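Q: Predict the assembly, please.
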Amino acid sequence: MQLKRILAIVVKEFREILRDPLYFSLCFIVPSALMVMFVYGLSLDVENVPFAVVDYDKTNLSRDYIYKFAKSRYFDLKAYTEDERKIDKMLDKGVIRMELIIPEHFQENLFAGRKADVQFLIDGTFPYRTKITKGYIVAMNADFNSKILPSYISKTMGIPLKQAKSKLNPIGLQVRYFYNEPVKSIYSLAPALMGMILFMSPPFLTALGIVREKESGSIYNIYSSTVTRSEFLIGKLFPYVVISIINANILWIMVTSLFEVPFKGNLPFFAVATGIYVICSTGIGLLVSAFVRTQVAAMLITTVLTVIPAWLYSGTMIPIESLKKEAWIEAHMFPCMYYNYIIMGSFLKGVGTSILWTNLLALIIYSIVLFTAGYLLFHKRIKA
Amino acid sequence: MAEVAIDISHFVKRYKKKIAVDRIDLSINKGEVFGLIGPDGAGKSTIMKAVAGILKFDEGTVRVFGMDIGSERNAEKIKSRLGFMPQGLGLNLYPELSVEENINFFAHLRSVPKDRLSKWKEKLLNMTRLKPFKNRKMKHLSGGMKQKLGLICTLIHEPELLILDEPTTGVDPVSREDFWEILSQLLGEKNVTALISTAYLDEAMRFNRLALMFNGKVIARGRPDEIVNGVKGSSVKVLANPQTKAMDILSRLLQKPEVVDNYIKVFVEGKDFKQATALVNDILKKNGIKVDDIYAEEPELEDVFIALLQNCHSDLPDSHSFSLSPIHLSVHSPPDEVAIEAKKITKYFGKFCAVDNVSFSVERGEIFGLLGPNGAGKTTLIKMLCGIIPPTAGNATVAGVDIHHIRDVRKRIGYMSQIFSLYRDLTVTENIKLYAGIYGLTKKETRMRLDWIIDMAGLRGHEEDLAGKLPMGIRQRLALGCALVHKPEILFLDEPTSGVDPIGRRAFWDIIFHLSREEKVTILVTTHYMMEAEHCDRLALMYAAKIIANDSPQRLKQDVAKKAGVLIKITTYKPFFSLKILRQAGFKVALYGNDIHLLTSDPQRDVEEIRSIFTENSIELKSVSEHPLSMEDVFVYDIKNLEESYAT
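A: Predicted assembly structure:
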């Protein structure tokens, strides 16, 4: 192994990356841009759901009920009419995602101690959002009930309002959220995205970097020279690992400063784990480059191989524990799951080596396997 | 007995089921410059890669410097001793790196010691005249410069074996000349063995020995003169009237003829000058064709190669294909009309001027050739005339239409580029029908055009073949057919014959000739093959974004003859050494193959002086004689003069 030859390849690679505007932006701009776009575009909090009301009752109580929704930050009142057909159209067009219909005699029935019904029509095209919306409705409806019921009981039974209230709600609920105290989705989303981007970008760059040389023919310089396989691979991959580590730093700063996500864990441990994770994902790029000849193919295959596991099997979208058995096995086959545990542990839970070391070990094993396979598949004497 | 550098025996290589090289035996001696010549797909690259130790093969053995390189481990052992330059102009270089950075990278890869590197680099940069461009990025170099940089990078570790895969393809004649000269100087100095492939037959004379390859087989091998002498025959040149009819008849009875300078040139195998002339004369007279002038000369290597290739060729169009009744393409424009007129047309890309104030006109039915080194602006000019890119200033009319009216222009022109734009997964018929659909032909028109194109391009029997599976020559003719589907008045051809073998090229030019003469289609063509330039009615020479000469080949030659005098060819057994001493004596000589060319206004005095120089240095002089100028001489003379004036 000659350090000089490795250095020559490293220097050449860096020069090419820094001077080619396309590669430069792929390396340094795209990862940060992805972070910004995903965080803002993928906010999972359901807020300001646009809705419209058909109020056939038009009483104080019906207006109170509507106002409860309209003033909340979860809903946004778009229209108030008496014509149901108009509103249906709005739902079709997607202007609103929920309808509230209050029938006649709403106030009258309630004051008379009878049951009164209201109807909610919710856009079900996006089930996740629908379920959350339904949850809000149920909670707010219950809250409304608990406000008018005591006054009715105190009136009819002749007991003080306070007594009536405690009689009706004998168990007081005290909830505190752990790890992500304000339950902001960005607190888990932004760090998880860091893991996703660091799983997608390094293999993409690596595979392109190697396959580009195959496509142009400059790989023949390597094949026909005395450079050994390991010298070439080290020299070729080193720049991409360095670039990805720089990106990891940028992303970490973005997550903690721009998105103000607290970092509670062990920073040195997290840094080491991230370094190994990046090496590991670079190895995926190396492996892909062994099988393809064109940059287009390299792009497609790395995208499929990295985006799907990063989204579905990392635990970002769906918790690993709630995956089906087959999916659970698949998730354990991709390194992004292990790193996601490290991310969640380090950012939100504030735990360190003692709990996360198994995940780190898994990443190390992955890196060794990927690099060994990549090395064995790379030949300086080819079939075609 | 010379020492053997490369020994190949029973070599077989398959790509999936297709046999690329079929049981070849080759032996190359140390210090030899060995050529592999043949069309695309003949198997040249496969052999070169195998010898460089970077390609697995299926059967046989390859020994390089005595080492059997059948395994990757053994192949590694010879790599320090060889330099390999893959195919494709500058493709193995790094575009973002400067000239010097490229060279240093290759040197570091090869662990060249610092002091040796700096000396050797200096020398190579000086020799290739790339020194002033040391800090220029590779992507900003011209084609010829890229090629020379590629050579430096391959030579930087002073290999004993040099493997160059088509180093001159796509490079203009001046750069090519330059390249060979540098290479021969270097090879002469050190005892380097070289294995070089080329698709240009006229380069064959530069090799000590060569193998002519076709379809994975060697069909002839030996010294160039041995190969020429191996096939007996004469090349007959005839000035006949009417020319097209004469061409039809001759191509039916003899080997493919071609038109050079208004003369039809045809090779007659197995006959001496007298017999051959008589035979051609008889044939023409019997068919009522007037013969104005006829004479025979020694066949050229290309004639011999074609004779050899013709036996293995099956994809030629039937020779009677041109006797079909012509469907007139566009009869609505009156004769003697100007087909293309460019008025001070200019194109800037940013600050870079690609075409500078160019004016010229082409008459209807003319074959107009556009020549010039890589990067002179030919392709940009064609693209402007086709309405693909708008000019920065100036204007042009094509078939009477302003080029700014893109739709009207497109209806009247056909365009065929170097990369034949065909759909490889469609059959021949489907491709033609597709183009007919794009141009909005009716069903009836499509059927008629389909028939016409299939006949014209000699595609009978291939109608249902996939375009991607056709041999190069046929694919090229299909591309031509597709460009003609909408009966264009003007046809633009941008290096249409790159990579096509000589027979395919001749068949192609027959069609072009036919289109121009019978159908009155105007043809504007760019090419690097100087033989093809001779087929044109008129030539424009482009250099550094300007047209610097525009006339018939005949007139261009006369001009150069007026300025520089007559051409003297000097043949010796020691061309490199002779070149050196003649230069020292102050002669402006150039090396063409093994011949030395000299342009002189006083041939008698110069010949005498040359003779005395040769006797002084005791070099045997094979022959010194006057020769008519070829288009290549004209091109090299003009461009070299310009380069000199630009340099000062």
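The CA atoms of residues 193 and 484 of chain B lie 47 Å apart. The first strand of chain B starts at residue 4 and ends at 15.
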